[in-house]
Design brief:
Number of domains: 1
CATH superfamily: Phosphoglycerate mutase-like
Helix content: 25-40%
Strand order of the largest sheet: 3-2-4-1-5-6
Number of strands: 6
CATH topology: Rossmann fold
Shape: globular
CATH architecture: 3-Layer(aba) Sandwich
Strand content: 15-25%
Structural class: alpha/beta
Number of helices: 7
CATH class: Alpha Beta
Order of helices and strands: EHHEHEHHHEHEE
């Protein structure tokens, strides 16, 4: 039986994470710590025989994925399907600013109301729909291989919930699965319906790197 191994990795710490601001679709670079996290992650995954690397087309994800692509001499394939949720009017705001200026959007977001469309943004449902389409194509193209996808905390959360079978058409509110900066979610596929979860938010490779992670800001 063909076995496909999947590694979904959150980008390293960004300047927006440091400031506690919603990143959304904005162009934000990695912090110094984020670049060290990306290098440590590349060093760790270099031994995993990965044959395909994908990334969100946002700068913080590309900067996180490039060290691994360079080490393995693989083309880094980017897609806007793996972007973070479009948080619309909340982009660039701190949590306190979002709560003060756009309370309805803020409370729907933190309560994981999956159908709520943020003003000038998108819903979690829309996020998952645009991600799954390309994700399924990636799995089909690289069946039997080892694949790395660099993405963002919200996208990773809902894609993981989907793979766990924990979200469906009738879901109104979803749990939040924390993925730290450069945390890795590991999955194994043995046939279309046989999904094995090997690890969630694996950060063992970051033990030697100091600094506080940002779990909330996107």
């Amino acid at each position: 039986m063909e076995v496909t191994r999947l590694y979904i990795i959150r980008h390293g710490q960004s300047s927006g994470n440091v400031a506690g601001r919603f990143g959304g679709h904005s162009t934000i670079s990695l912090s110094d710590l984020g670049r060290r996290q990306a290098e440590a992650t590349a060093n760790h995954l270099e031994k995993e025989n990965i044959s395909a690397i994908y990334s969100s087309d946002l700068a913080r994800a590309i900067e996180s994925a490039q060290p691994l692509a360079t080490r393995l001499r693989l083309q880094l394939k980017t897609s806007n399907a793996f972007r973070e949720r479009n948080v619309g009017v909340l982009e660039g705001l701190t949590f306190d600013e979002a709560k003060r200026d756009f309370p309805d959007d803020y409370h729907a977001l933190v309560n994981r109301d999956v159908a709520h469309v943020i003003t000038k943004g998108e819903s979690y449902t829309q996020l998952l729909e645009r991600t799954i389409c390309v994700f399924n194509d990636v799995l089909a193209e690289h069946r039997g291989e080892r694949i790395a996808i660099y993405s963002h905390t919200g996208t990773i959360c809902f894609l993981t919930l989907h793979l766990l079978g924990a979200i469906h058409n009738a879901t109104t509110n979803a749990p939040w699965l924390v993925t730290s900066n450069c945390g890795i979610n590991r999955f194994e596929f043995r046939g279309r319906e046989n999904v094995r979860v090997l690890a969630l938010n694996d950060t063992r490779h970051l033990r030697e790197i100091s600094g506080n992670d940002s779990f909330g800001a996107k």
